[in-house]
Amino acid sequence: MKIIKIMLLGIMITCTSGCKKFLDIIPDNVATLDQAFQMRATAKKYLFTCYSYLPDLGHPAANYTFLGSREIATPYPGSQAPGIPGSIMQLCYDYQNIVNPINNYWDGNMDDNGGIAMFTAMRTCNIFLENIGRVPDIQEVERKRWIAEVKVLKAYYHFLMMRMYGPIPMMKTNIPVSADVEAVKVKRDPVDDVAAYIAQLVDEAVPDLPSVINNQREELGRITTPIALAVKAYALTLDASPLFNGNADYAGLKNKDGQALVNTAFDRGKWQKAAAACNDAITAANNAGFKLYYFEKPFDLNNIGDTTKKCMDIRCAISEEWNQECIWGFPQTTTSELQRECAPRNDVYSYTYALWAANMNACEIFYTGNGVPIEEDLDWDYNNRYTKLVTVPVAMRSILKPNYTTSSFNMNREYRFYADLAFDGSSYFMKQRPNEDNLLYINTMWGSSSANTLSRYSFTGYWPKKLVSWKTSGDGGSYTADAYLWPAIRLSALYLMYAEALNESEGPTPKAYQYIDEVRRRAGLDGVVQSWAAHSRNAAKPSSREGLRSIIQQETMIEFIFEGENYWNMRRWKRLDLMNRPITGWDVTQNTPATFYRARSIYQPHNTFKDFLAPIREYNLYVNPNLVQNPLW
User: Fold this and answer.
1) DSSP readout, 421-465?
2) Cα 14 from Cα 122, distance rounded (Å)
3) Which pLDDT tens digit goes with each residue over 361-413?
4) CB–CB of 305/436 below 8 Å?
5) Taking the CB of residue 578, how many other CB atoms lie within 10 A of it?
6) Of 19, 110, 251, 270, whose CB is crowded by the most CB atoms within 10 A?
7) In what helix (H) or strand (E) does residue 557 lie, and over which residues does it extend?
8) Start and end of every SusD-like N-terminal domain (predicted)?
9) Is the omega angle on the peptide bond into residue 77 within 30 degrees of 0, that is, cis?
10) Residue 362 and residue 234: Cα distance in Å, rounded?
């Protein structure tokens, strides 16, 4: 019977060999656990074990949301992106399943299908919290700080699971191995309860956390007050969003005992709580010195023009490591392989994979140079955006090759379009071309040095340049990535979430405009009200809750395009229209503008309502009849 209980506990909660190891240690080898907490040095190692479950967000083989958002696409079937598991590709082409789910965070990586065993992560945190009080040679202030850090990690792991699965079994404490069989047959807890528990853990932790990391050489990436409050803001914003706030589609999502797992009655008070949490997080971040990133020219860089400077403001907010906007960076992840996927081959470096293509349809989300959607701009020829060819004026040489023929789709767009994308005729500012008199321009017409093999080429004609550091270098046949660490939480995200929460709780307000406009100002755009009044066919759009909601969502999609963040935003907003945007591009195997610039459809996604939440592996439902599956899986 004891063996059965242990097996059930391992299957219900973690389903990983790693956790079974813990289960063996607790009853049979107590000395091993005692040794882990017998002194400060070994306890610190266990603290870092709690950190070790943070997802590798900057690695293309680990973060499926890069491709899952369909802002980036890559060929399938056919040529594969080197180093990317087939499961990642399958998920992006609608092959999710319940037998062996792809990127399974419930059970962990099974059969190389990706995922992190988040219940193991929570269990590890609980073991630390249960035992850290026994460590004798540690000062009390440090003990409290470590406890606070692990509480926030535990909150974050719950948040990651809530974001993926919705209602989950909370792991407030570990289930003893001595528990009977029924005790380990856990059920899912309502989403509201999970969000409240995350907030509780953060609130308990904040008094004992530092506001900034003083010992940066050794401690960058460890939990601070701004990080903790940002986690709370993310969780409460998710809980307030349409997916979990008044979603009648989940009326049937209940435990076997009839307990509702999602509140189907809309509660505006959730948005008020989210707004307060965002405000607290922003205040803590500002007090700690965080601010939106603006490019500071290194001393060894020649003078650059205002346009290039503005593009660098945008591009380097991601790739400038530990910049003043990065509230939480993940030190355990680097972006060398990510950049190799996203960097087009060019005259400086040619040894790249270059297969990660920016979806042209997704790139319609970028505004015009007037700061409004392309379909709304009074002065932008939306109907002929794919068919009209134009010549680039010399005045645009900082971003486009002068006197070059291109599509009108690429003309008169906002700075983020040019900062985030590489395409035929676009400039490619890099450290090895240190001034505007020596700009590199991308040539992607078929037969050029950048486009002579489909195994190393964007099949849409665009690359997500945003993810490639300007310091990445080469010497023709080599490629050396500036492997920056991934910024998991940026201040701009809090600004836009705060504006969203204010609009949903109070309607359009000056403060909501203020935080959107801060992000727009960095992008070189006028404020929302001014831009819409002067340039939009729908001038009154920012004055209504519905109109401003649309603006905030588009602003968020633009600001975080290609980062994977929008994978989750589309789901919490219930935006199937965005999830099902077709993958489109130019006719890239052609070598003249007239033939190259012909729009073509490459793949049409088929997401449905069920894809808002990930499936639980059906085996878990078999061994634990108290678990219920997510809708339609």
Assistant:
1) -EETTBB--BTTB-SGGG--B---STTSTTSS-GGGS-SSSEE-G
2) 9
3) 999 999 999 999 999 999 999 999 999 999 999 999 999 999 999 999 999 99
4) yes
5) 21
6) 270
7) helix 545-559
8) 116-213
9) yes
10) 24
